[in-house]
Predict the 3D structure of the following.
Amino acid sequence: MRSFWRGIVRAIFWSYDRGSWPYDVLVIAIVIFVLATPRSWFHDRPQSGVGESASVQLVSEDSSSQTRVYRLDAGALSPQKRATRPTPELERETHDILGRTVGDLKARTFQVLRIDPVVDGDGAVLHYDVTIRP
């Protein structure tokens, strides 16, 4: 029984010499674990909402001026790119997100006309109303 526990301790602290059969068995076990483990076990998904279609909603469409207003959740942007007033970087980022997530804007050119941040009482941005012209 003592040799069993000694083997467990040696495996935990990786104290086998390279090239020995226990070392090779541990390496093979690790490789099998890495290759055979389903990705879903580790919840391997992006943390930000960027690219998720649920973060973009069509709010209105005006056929006379040929504009559309989309509501973009602030969580779709990284905290560093959120702004309470429109900036060129915010415009570029919202354009990229809309181009990736909205089906009829994919692979098409469109222009961001206006970005209206909607803030709560504390001044944190809740979402952006983005007006575009396709």
About this structure: Strands lie at 56-62, 67-73, 111-119, 125-133. The longest strand covers residues 111-119. Residues 16 and 23 are 6 Å apart (CA to CA). Confidence is low (pLDDT under 50) at residues 48-53.
